[in-house]
Amino acid sequence: MEKEQLAVYFIAGTPNCLTTIEETLQAAIDGGIAMFQFREKGEGALTGERKKQIALRLQAKCKQAGIPFIINDDIALAIDIAADGVHIGQEDEPASVVREKIKGGIVGVSVHTMDEFEKAIADGADYVGTGPIYVTATKTDTRPVAGTTLIRKMKDKYPDFPIVGIGGITIENAEEVMKAGADGVSVITAISHAKNPKQAASQLKNVFSRTQ
Ligand code: 3NM
């Protein structure tokens, strides 16, 4: 994968969206997101065939836009529909096992310490996400708020490895995350709950461009 694909990395599931997830994703694409992760979690989350059908529709939109379509945690679904990749946490299957299953696809791993970061690299991850950088209401079982210190340390040691920040990132604070060395920002609410998701995505893209 290219680092530039992390610039504005939108994540969403149906419970995160104010309108339909298809509409929200289309607006985010029109605003210039570079990658999308389908993360169908939380109250009211779809499962089984209904989840798969939505995934296929979102995948088609990403394909048309030429951006990677990543699935959170559900490795079986990712393989079933030939998604471009998966994103896993520390509680999921080991990244080395997922790497084998996903073959040439993108594998992203959530990390919270330098040790987890180095393990993810050794296991064959293509990028890591680290957070929560700021307070987030979207995920309740996060680690303590980390700020940008770890991103700086990670970039100092591995300047070329793709890193994205996550958790409570907004148009206002995204610049701080980029300046700490992140290759991009992962957001749910900043786009999915925006009055104008297209504009929000475009503003985040502008923050990325002006910090390069
Ligand atoms: N992972 P929002 S924080 C999915 O810290 C997720 O690993 C996190 O949502 C982590 O952009 C988070 O609305 C939620 O804050 C991000």
From TrEMBL:
Alphabetical keyword list: Magnesium, Metal-binding, Thiamine biosynthesis, Transferase
HAMAP family according to UniProt: TMP_synthase (MF_00097)
Binding site residues for 2-[(2R,5Z)-2-carboxy-4-methylthiazol-5(2H)-ylidene]ethyl phosphate: 136-138, 168, 188-189
Binding site for 4-amino-2-methyl-5-(diphosphooxymethyl)pyrimidine: 37-41, 72, 110, 139
Name of the protein in its database record: Thiamine-phosphate synthase
Lineage: Bacteria, Bacillati, Bacillota, Bacilli, Bacillales
Family: Belongs to the thiamine-phosphate synthase family.
Pfam families in the record: TMP-TENI
An example Gene Ontology molecular-function term: thiamine-phosphate diphosphorylase activity
Single GO cellular component term: cytoplasm
